[in-house]
Amino acid sequence: MEPPRISATAGVLAALILTSCSTDEEPQELTAEVDYQPVALSEATAIDDAVAASLATATEILSQDSEPGENTVISPASLSLALAMLAEGAEGPADEALSDFLGASDQDRREAFSALQAALGEYAGDPSVVEEDELPEVPVLHLANQLVMQEGEEPDQEVLNNLGQYFDAGIVETDFASEESKELLDSWVSENTGGLIEESAIEAPDPEMLFTLQNAVLFAAEWRAPFDPERTDDLPFTTDSGEEVEAEMMRHDYGSVRYTEYDDAQIIRLPYSEGFAMDVVLPAEGHSPEEFTAEDWTAVDEAFAEEPTAEVELTLPKVEARTDTALDGVLQDQGLGPIYSGDDLSPLGPVWVGTVNQQAVLAIDEEGTVAAAVTEIGMVSSAPGEEETEPVEMTVDRPYTLRIVHDETNLPLFMAVINDPTRE
């Protein structure tokens, strides 16, 4: 698979310090006073609540109005990890709002997200693999976190320690009033997404910027049962506006695959080589994929827990989609207003959140999937079946929704609404 050269970011954390910035002075790397100490899933008590909260946030974002034919791609994992890191520097109403939003508070919260990050770390790999012609036999899930801070700022050492101990976050100083700060942010984003996202969404230089949290997630995996390119053909796809377009449609006949139906929607689970799967939901005629709620996804999870299988003749479009999303409005609507005003981030300093942005990219073809996301939070100093049955036909020729999940935790890594697969 030749990955697309497209960009997509989402404001989260990042854990690698770049050394490729073409600046006269290298950024000063700081460290926490404790080493990274990953938490085991068995030791974290709020995993289910954290995953449920991440899914609820994602479905709310995907339900927002969009332009006709517009595709939306997000990374729930990236956004949740970024906000969990932000919570380390929050107190008062901001901390309470973030705890409600993330599904857990205090030590339960940091242990839950640290454990989720560590579980994904089983598939850690070099992000440069996405530049190769062939996808890796074993999935690669690269995750990185970073805090970039204005030179001279002195946040509470406990905040830095928690970012290092639980999130393995790198910590770097820069001068946000300089052009070099933009180069630092951009190069980190590009390196940790394998070049799929080339630039940071943070506008710099900005003399009022004091902190930026960055998180990058890069996923590359081949299907357990690849599609045959010889069967791919241009077939009609009806977009959300009712327009009929010719889309590249892949076809595969599965002798046995996870499949269920819910509220007249068809849902199929397509496994990758190991560790991850993609759920594709084709709503009933006359229904929009944006209507699919967190409760609906939970019902799907419960159905798949029974391991239902069917013989399915699947037709699925190839996709190259990218999204650049300012999340401030939806986050404030979901109760995170306190992080945008007041003094509730005082452990970091006299700051509050100026912007939360996510870029995300998704490419699906016969071999597998490549996806990347970057979440960035800019903080400023001023306010801003066993019986034989007939094969089921599932022809995805109208708008649909999907998610890529980690098998062990069910954490949604990426979710999307595809209204027109011919559009990037």
From TrEMBL:
<protein>
    <submittedName>
        <fullName>Serpin family protein</fullName>
    </submittedName>
</protein>
<dbReference type="InterPro" id="IPR042178">
    <property type="entry name" value="Serpin_sf_1"/>
</dbReference>
<dbReference type="GO" id="GO:0004867">
    <property type="term" value="F:serine-type endopeptidase inhibitor activity"/>
</dbReference>
<feature type="domain" description="Serpin">
    <location>
        <begin position="59"/>
        <end position="421"/>
    </location>
</feature>
<dbReference type="Pfam" id="PF00079">
    <property type="entry name" value="Serpin"/>
</dbReference>
<dbReference type="InterPro" id="IPR000215">
    <property type="entry name" value="Serpin_fam"/>
</dbReference>
<dbReference type="InterPro" id="IPR042185">
    <property type="entry name" value="Serpin_sf_2"/>
</dbReference>
<dbReference type="InterPro" id="IPR023796">
    <property type="entry name" value="Serpin_dom"/>
</dbReference>
<dbReference type="InterPro" id="IPR036186">
    <property type="entry name" value="Serpin_sf"/>
</dbReference>
<dbReference type="GO" id="GO:0005615">
    <property type="term" value="C:extracellular space"/>
</dbReference>
<comment type="similarity">
    <text>Belongs to the serpin family.</text>
</comment>
